[in-house]
Amino acid sequence: MARRRIGTKDSATRTKLLDAAERLMIAEGYAAVTSRRVGTEAGIAPQLVHYYFRTMDDLFLEVIRRRSEAGLAEFARATEGDVSLRQLWDFQAGRAQSRMEIEFAALANHRKVVGVEIATYGERFRQMHADGVARALDRLGMSKDAYPPEVLTLLMTGVAQILALEEGLGMSSAHDETRAFVDELIDRFSRSPSAARQPAAHR
Known about the structure:
about 200 residues, mainly alpha
Protein backbone atom coordinates (compact mmCIF):
# COMPACT_ATOMS: atom_id res chain seq x y z
CA MET A 1 0.00 0.00 0.00
CA ALA A 2 1.37 3.43 -0.95
CA ARG A 3 2.30 5.62 1.97
CA ARG A 4 0.22 8.77 2.21
CA ARG A 5 2.17 11.91 1.50
CA ILE A 6 2.71 14.34 4.36
CA GLY A 7 3.30 18.08 3.94
CA THR A 8 6.80 19.44 4.35
CA LYS A 9 8.03 20.57 7.77
CA ASP A 10 9.04 24.04 6.57
CA SER A 11 5.63 24.78 5.10
CA ALA A 12 3.98 28.08 6.10
CA THR A 13 0.66 26.24 6.30
CA ARG A 14 2.09 23.72 8.74
CA THR A 15 3.37 26.56 10.91
CA LYS A 16 -0.08 28.18 10.92
CA LEU A 17 -1.62 24.92 12.09
CA LEU A 18 0.87 24.58 14.94
CA ASP A 19 0.30 28.21 15.93
CA ALA A 20 -3.45 27.64 15.92
CA ALA A 21 -3.15 24.50 18.06
CA GLU A 22 -1.06 26.39 20.62
CA ARG A 23 -3.55 29.24 20.82
CA LEU A 24 -6.41 26.82 21.38
CA MET A 25 -4.51 24.96 24.09
CA ILE A 26 -3.74 28.15 25.98
CA ALA A 27 -7.20 29.66 25.59
CA GLU A 28 -9.45 26.60 25.94
CA GLY A 29 -7.34 23.56 26.87
CA TYR A 30 -6.10 20.58 24.91
CA ALA A 31 -9.61 19.12 24.45
CA ALA A 32 -10.39 22.02 22.12
CA VAL A 33 -7.62 20.92 19.76
CA THR A 34 -9.50 18.98 17.07
CA SER A 35 -8.77 18.95 13.36
CA ARG A 36 -11.89 21.03 12.72
CA ARG A 37 -11.08 23.64 15.38
CA VAL A 38 -7.42 23.86 14.41
CA GLY A 39 -8.27 24.31 10.75
CA THR A 40 -10.85 26.98 11.51
CA GLU A 41 -8.51 28.81 13.89
CA ALA A 42 -5.76 28.77 11.26
CA GLY A 43 -8.11 29.83 8.45
CA ILE A 44 -7.34 26.61 6.59
CA ALA A 45 -9.59 23.79 5.42
CA PRO A 46 -9.78 21.30 8.35
CA GLN A 47 -9.06 18.33 6.09
CA LEU A 48 -5.60 19.76 5.44
CA VAL A 49 -4.66 19.16 9.08
CA HIS A 50 -4.20 15.48 8.27
CA TYR A 51 -2.18 16.30 5.19
CA TYR A 52 0.48 17.73 7.49
CA PHE A 53 -0.11 15.47 10.51
CA ARG A 54 -1.23 11.88 10.07
CA THR A 55 -2.87 11.77 13.50
CA MET A 56 -3.73 14.24 16.22
CA ASP A 57 -1.00 12.64 18.33
CA ASP A 58 1.49 13.70 15.66
CA LEU A 59 0.16 17.24 15.84
CA PHE A 60 0.40 17.31 19.64
CA LEU A 61 3.94 15.93 19.53
CA GLU A 62 5.05 18.65 17.14
CA VAL A 63 3.43 21.33 19.30
CA ILE A 64 5.31 19.95 22.32
CA ARG A 65 8.63 19.70 20.48
CA ARG A 66 8.40 23.16 18.98
CA ARG A 67 7.27 24.79 22.21
CA SER A 68 9.81 22.90 24.31
CA GLU A 69 12.79 23.58 22.05
CA ALA A 70 11.85 27.26 21.91
CA GLY A 71 11.44 27.32 25.68
CA LEU A 72 14.80 25.67 26.29
CA ALA A 73 16.50 28.14 23.94
CA GLU A 74 14.72 31.10 25.57
CA PHE A 75 15.68 29.87 29.03
CA ALA A 76 19.31 29.43 27.97
CA ARG A 77 19.42 33.01 26.66
CA ALA A 78 17.67 34.45 29.72
CA THR A 79 19.92 32.71 32.22
CA GLU A 80 23.34 32.82 30.63
CA GLY A 81 26.13 34.40 32.61
CA ASP A 82 25.46 35.70 36.12
CA VAL A 83 21.88 34.51 36.53
CA SER A 84 19.91 35.49 39.65
CA LEU A 85 17.20 33.74 41.63
CA ARG A 86 14.89 36.59 40.58
CA GLN A 87 15.44 35.84 36.89
CA LEU A 88 14.82 32.14 37.47
CA TRP A 89 11.56 32.76 39.33
CA ASP A 90 10.33 35.34 36.81
CA PHE A 91 10.90 32.85 34.01
CA GLN A 92 8.99 30.12 35.83
CA ALA A 93 6.15 32.44 36.72
CA GLY A 94 5.44 33.36 33.09
CA ARG A 95 1.70 32.69 32.94
CA ALA A 96 1.32 31.53 29.33
CA GLN A 97 4.26 29.17 29.72
CA SER A 98 2.89 27.61 32.91
CA ARG A 99 -0.61 27.17 31.48
CA MET A 100 0.78 25.39 28.44
CA GLU A 101 2.79 23.07 30.67
CA ILE A 102 -0.34 22.24 32.66
CA GLU A 103 -2.22 21.41 29.46
CA PHE A 104 0.65 19.19 28.35
CA ALA A 105 0.52 17.35 31.67
CA ALA A 106 -3.25 16.85 31.39
CA LEU A 107 -2.86 15.60 27.83
CA ALA A 108 -0.18 13.12 28.94
CA ASN A 109 -2.73 11.40 31.18
CA HIS A 110 -4.65 10.34 28.08
CA ARG A 111 -1.92 9.86 25.47
CA LYS A 112 1.09 7.78 26.51
CA VAL A 113 3.30 8.80 23.58
CA VAL A 114 2.75 12.42 24.54
CA GLY A 115 3.68 11.69 28.15
CA VAL A 116 7.02 10.20 27.13
CA GLU A 117 7.87 13.27 25.05
CA ILE A 118 6.85 15.69 27.80
CA ALA A 119 8.91 13.82 30.40
CA THR A 120 11.98 13.95 28.16
CA TYR A 121 11.80 17.70 27.73
CA GLY A 122 10.73 18.21 31.34
CA GLU A 123 13.85 16.51 32.64
CA ARG A 124 16.04 18.59 30.34
CA PHE A 125 14.47 21.84 31.50
CA ARG A 126 14.57 20.88 35.17
CA GLN A 127 18.29 20.11 34.93
CA MET A 128 18.98 23.42 33.17
CA HIS A 129 16.97 25.30 35.80
CA ALA A 130 18.70 23.50 38.68
CA ASP A 131 22.08 24.35 37.13
CA GLY A 132 20.98 27.99 37.02
CA VAL A 133 19.92 27.89 40.68
CA ALA A 134 23.27 26.35 41.60
CA ARG A 135 25.12 29.19 39.85
CA ALA A 136 22.93 31.79 41.56
CA LEU A 137 23.61 30.24 44.97
CA ASP A 138 27.34 30.19 44.28
CA ARG A 139 27.25 33.92 43.53
CA LEU A 140 25.48 34.53 46.84
CA GLY A 141 27.90 32.29 48.74
CA MET A 142 25.05 30.07 49.87
CA SER A 143 25.40 26.37 50.63
CA LYS A 144 23.89 24.02 48.07
CA ASP A 145 23.64 21.41 50.81
CA ALA A 146 21.41 23.71 52.85
CA TYR A 147 19.49 24.89 49.77
CA PRO A 148 19.47 22.03 47.23
CA PRO A 149 19.09 23.50 43.70
CA GLU A 150 16.87 20.62 42.58
CA VAL A 151 14.48 21.23 45.48
CA LEU A 152 14.34 25.00 44.90
CA THR A 153 13.66 24.30 41.22
CA LEU A 154 10.76 22.01 42.06
CA LEU A 155 9.33 24.56 44.51
CA MET A 156 9.47 27.34 41.93
CA THR A 157 7.91 25.14 39.27
CA GLY A 158 5.17 23.88 41.58
CA VAL A 159 4.13 27.31 42.85
CA ALA A 160 4.13 28.81 39.34
CA GLN A 161 2.01 25.98 37.96
CA ILE A 162 -0.49 26.01 40.81
CA LEU A 163 -0.99 29.76 40.41
CA ALA A 164 -1.47 29.37 36.65
CA LEU A 165 -3.87 26.45 37.05
CA GLU A 166 -6.04 28.21 39.62
CA GLU A 167 -6.07 31.48 37.70
CA GLY A 168 -7.23 29.53 34.66
CA LEU A 169 -10.14 28.27 36.78
CA GLY A 170 -10.96 31.76 37.97
CA MET A 171 -9.47 31.30 41.44
CA SER A 172 -7.31 34.01 42.98
CA SER A 173 -7.48 33.52 46.76
CA ALA A 174 -4.06 34.24 48.34
CA HIS A 175 -2.40 34.56 44.93
CA ASP A 176 -1.22 38.14 45.44
CA GLU A 177 -0.02 37.24 48.92
CA THR A 178 1.85 34.19 47.60
CA ARG A 179 3.57 36.19 44.87
CA ALA A 180 4.49 38.87 47.43
CA PHE A 181 5.83 36.21 49.82
CA VAL A 182 7.99 34.64 47.09
CA ASP A 183 9.23 38.08 46.00
CA GLU A 184 10.19 38.98 49.56
CA LEU A 185 11.86 35.63 50.13
CA ILE A 186 13.94 36.01 46.98
CA ASP A 187 14.91 39.52 48.08
CA ARG A 188 16.07 38.09 51.42
CA PHE A 189 18.10 35.39 49.69
CA SER A 190 19.63 37.99 47.40
CA ARG A 191 20.68 40.30 50.21
CA SER A 192 22.58 37.75 52.28
CA PRO A 193 22.51 34.07 53.29
CA SER A 194 21.92 35.00 56.94
CA ALA A 195 18.87 37.13 56.05
CA ALA A 196 17.37 34.16 54.23
CA ARG A 197 17.15 32.27 57.51
CA GLN A 198 14.78 34.87 58.96
CA PRO A 199 11.04 34.34 58.37
CA ALA A 200 9.46 36.52 55.72
CA ALA A 201 7.25 39.27 57.13
CA HIS A 202 3.50 38.81 56.74
CA ARG A 203 1.87 41.46 54.60
